[in-house]
Each structure stands twice: as structure tokens, then as C-alpha cells.
Amino acid sequence: MSSALVESPRSFGDMMRAPVLLYRTIGEDIYAHRSTNALNSLLLKIYLYAGFINFNLLVCGELVFFYKSMQDFETVRLAIAVAPCIGFSLVADFKQFTMVLYKGTLTRLLDELEEMHPKTLAQQRAFKMEDFERTMRRVIGIFTFLCLAYTTTFSFYPAVKATIKYNFLGYETFDRNFGFLIWFPYDATSRNWVYWITYWDIAHGAYLAGIAFLCADLLLVVVITQLCMHFSFIANRLEDYPCYEDRNAENIQFLASMIKYHDKCLTLCEHINQMYSFSLLLNFLMASMQICFIAFQVTESTIEVILIYCIFLMTSMVQVFLVCYYGDALIAASLRVGDAAYNQNWFQCSKTYCVLLKMMIMRSQKPAMIRPPTFPPISLVTYMKVISMSYQFFALLRTTYYRN
Questions:
Q1: What DSSP letter does each residue of 167-203 carry, written as one string?
Q2: Contact 148, 31 (CB under 8 A)
Q3: How far apart, in whole angstroms, are the C-alpha atoms of residue 51 and residue 113?
Q4: For residue 76, what are the contacts with CB-CB under 8 A and spacing of at least 6?
Q5: In 241-302, alpha helices (H)
Q6: pLDDT of the residue at 348
Q7: What phi and psi values does residue 128 have, to the nearest 5 degrees?
Q8: Contact 198, 205 (CB under 8 A)
Q9: How far apart are CA 99 and CA 30, in angstroms?
Q10: Nearest to 98 by CA among 216, 215, 17, 206
Q11: How far apart are CA 53 and CA 58, in angstroms?
């Protein structure tokens, strides 16, 4: 029985499980168009919108706090401390806005990928799906852990610390502090019930931001993993095809099916570009600033603060690396199609076949890629560029701060 379960084919829904389940915890239903329960869909939508209204009010409080702190050099350190959280919040907000704006495109993309997904165990072995899925799950697990560790640490560390000091170390007062630096139009620490309502309000906002930030990237990871799998399958099929010398019609039929398959994959890549290009541009710009400000906090703070911000720093750097790694993998997988086509025994085929093959090779020389505006195509080179920008901002910030 157990061996049968291990050998059973994996559905597209299995690969999508992580982003779908995590998104639903904040009220976002990726497959809302398939829902048969109208009331449940309505409640999820109300929960999502209410959560984002609350979250954006908190972001406004962070922006006010940042502005007030910048007015005096004595408090500019507080402005630097809140800046990475503002950047993270704005990117999470924009990612969610992008998902809503391109919901129709996302739905079509996922539906087409599900239709193309290999259904039987034999097909999945031919696609080498297990290898792609194993890497994808490891990446999703690591990034999910880091992202939730960051939001959990910032949210609950002050309450845990105050509880230990008050209940176990004999402190006379309970420190009513928050994990995030936010301006409130009222005294949020005046009374115990006001403090705890505000505290859990902030915690929910932090969780919502973390999930919105995380799941947009998890969707990107799943989608690019699928496309890399399809490009790899096309390349393997082209390389392994024997090119029968006396079966011209069969050869042309095979190549035509591969060209159509390849073109569909490239079209799906354009859907990804349509959804992600602007959000990734903002993501990289904000990531450069975030890493800069976080690095400044790490070099200028106590051990306690350093440990908290190190998790944030690791999350930011891993997130940028994750996107760049999969962008690079997409380019490599699509370029391999042209190499595989050239490696065929095409010299013994008809002229028509060779012309079609030449067109496919020429098309594959322009690889599938994610192209943020004004930025080079996303690859591991882009990661080095973001890290370089972060260091330049960091050096400028330290020089300006100590000069004053």
C-alpha cells in the first residue's frame, strides 16, 4: 500500500499546495473562480480587504514615524531602523496589488500550466518531474521558514521578553513595547487592553505582509519550475528524436508539434513578464535599500537587535537570490532548446524539415526571461548588481551619518 502511494502521480495542485494554502490564511483564494460556495468566497474577500485596510493604516503610521524621526539628528537612528520595514511593507503591498490587477492573467496562466502538466506516472518520469519538484520544495521550505521567522520574531519578541522579565525575573512593571516602530494617533500603551488590542492588530498586519510578500514569490517559483521542466522536456525530445531518413511526413509532424509546444511555453513566459516585471523592479530597488539599512543596524546596534535584524537580512538576501536563481534557470532551460535542435541528425532530413528546424533554433536564441523595466534580464548577474548597489548605499549612509 505504501509503495503504491509513493508511485502515484503528482498533480499540479500538489505543486501549488504551499502558495494556495498560505494565501488562504489571509483571505486570498487563487482558485476563487472555481469555488462553488459563494458565501465562503465572500467571507474570504471581506477578510482579505479588511486585513489590507488595517495593514495600510499601519504602513501610514510607519511613514509618519519615519518622517518625525528624520526631523532631528538625535532620532535619525530610529528612522534608519524603521526604513527596512517600510520597504518590506511597500513591496508586499505592491505585490498584492499586482496579483489583483492581473488576476485574469494569473488564472489563465495557472489553468494552461495545469492542462500541460504531465498526468500519468510514465509521463512524469519522462519529464523528470521528481527532480524539479524536489528542488522546488527545498527552496519553498527554506524561504517560507525565513520569511515567517522574520515576521514572527519582530512581532512577538517584545511581548515574550516583557513576559519573562515581569513573571520570572521580578521586574515590577510590564514593558509595553511593540515589535515595529509605528506612530499612533492615540496612546497605545496607556491601558492594558488598548495595548494588547493594538499589539495583536500589528501582529496580524505583519503576518499579512509576510504572506503577501512570500506567496507572490512562491507562485513565481512554482510557475518557473513548471516552465523549466517543459523546456527541458522539449530539449530532451529533440535530442533523442532519431530523424528517420525515409519518413519525412512523420519527421515534419514531430517537429511541428515541438514548435507549437515551444511557442506555447514562450507565450506563458510573456504572461509572467506581464504580471511580475514592475513588481520585481520595485522589489530589487527596495531590496537594495533594505539590505543597506539592515546592514547599518547590524553594525551599529546591540547583540539583541543584531540577532533580530540578521534574520531580516538573511530573508532579504535569500529572496533576491531566489528570484535571480530561477530567472537564470529559465534562461538556461530555454537556450538549451536551440542547442538540442542543432544536435539532431538533421543533415539527413528533407529541406522543409531543415527550414523549420532553423526557425526553431533562431527563435530559441532569444531566451525566455523575466525583464523588469530599465533593468537587465533577471539572472545571477542581477543578484550581484543588487548586492553591489546595497553596498554602495551602505557606504554612503555610514559616511553621511558619521560626518554629521
A1: HTS--SS-----SS----SS-TTSSHHHHHHHHHHHH
A2: no
A3: 30
A4: 69, 70, 401
A5: 248-300
A6: 82
A7: 55, 40
A8: no
A9: 9
A10: 216
A11: 9
Distance CA 110, CA 13 (A): 10
pLDDT of residue 4: 44
367 SS3 class: coil
| Contact by Cβ (8 Å): 186, 207 | no
Q: In residues, how long is the chain?
A: 404
Q: On the CB side of 129, how many CA atoms lie within 13 Å of its CA? A: 23
Question: Is the four-CA dihedral 158, 159, 160, 163 of positive or negative sign?
Answer: positive
pLDDT value for 376? 84
**Is residue 102 classed as helix, strand or coil in its secondary structure?**
coil
Q: Whole-prediction pTM value? A: 0.92
C-alpha to C-alpha distances, 389 to 44, 151, 255, nearest whole angstrom? 40, 25, 45
> Do the Cβ atoms of 27 and 34 come closer than 8 Å?
no
What is the Cα–Cα distance from 277 to 299, expressed in whole angstroms? 33
- CA–CA distance, 32 with 45 (Å, rounded to integer): 10
Cα(388)–Cα(404) distance, integer angstroms: 25
Whole-number pLDDT of residue 404: 62
Dig out the grid coordinates for 140 from the structure. Answer: 519553498
pLDDT for the residue numbered 182: 95
Asked whether the beta carbons of 265 and 368 are under 8 A apart, the reply is: yes
CA distance 86 to 193: 27
C-alpha atoms less than 13 angstroms from C-alpha of 303 in its C-beta half-sphere:
0
Contacts of 255 (CB under 8 A, 6+ apart): 353, 356, 357, 360
Cβ-based neighbour number of residue 249 at 10 Å: 9
Residue pair 307/251 in contact (Cβ under 8 Å)? The answer is: no
SS3 at position 344: coil
Q: For residues 227 and 269, give the distance between their C-alpha atoms in angstroms, rounded to a whole number.
A: 8
Q: Which of 377, 379, 280, 265 is nearest to 329 (CA)?
A: 379
Which of 49, 48, 99, 387 shows the shortest CA–CA distance to 223?
99
Regions of the chain short of the pLDDT cut 50: 1-5
Q: Tell me the one-letter amino acid at 379.
A: S
